[in-house]
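sorry for the late reply, my laptop died twice this morning and i had to redo everyting from scratch. anyway the thing you sent over, i finally got around to it. pasting the sequence first so we're on the same page, its 128 residues, then the predicted structure underneath. double check i copied it right bc i was rushing
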Amino acid sequence: NYDTVWCVGVDQDQYAQFAETNPTWAKTIITSALKNTDQALIYAVQMVIDGSISSKMGKYEVLGIKENCVGLAENDYYLANVPEDVRKEIADTLSAVANGEVEVADTMTMTDYENQWPTIRDANRINK
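ok and here's the structure:
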């Protein structure tokens, strides 16, 4: 039974973005994958303040879950519609990624994409 179709927004809390202007759309967005650019800016400003920015010049750094630079929108709609046990499993998984227990595959560094991707894609399928 597929009475409800959910989607996941990207970059910002898209449920909040549409909640007032288009509530019908908003109610299809169970959560959003957040790009917390404010946290990346705070990270960079802190390096300016503590004088460590010069060691980063001309280099790139990946900022992710551990640094709170990406995350999940846990707004009221998410809390009301996602069961507590599922929210706990998601939170535990995010924590495991942040502390290094779970390695996130980087498809940009794959050397044999055609052979490596199916294993990653299918790793957590329910109906294998």
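The first helix runs from residue 14 to 18.
thats about all i looked at so far, will dig more tmrw
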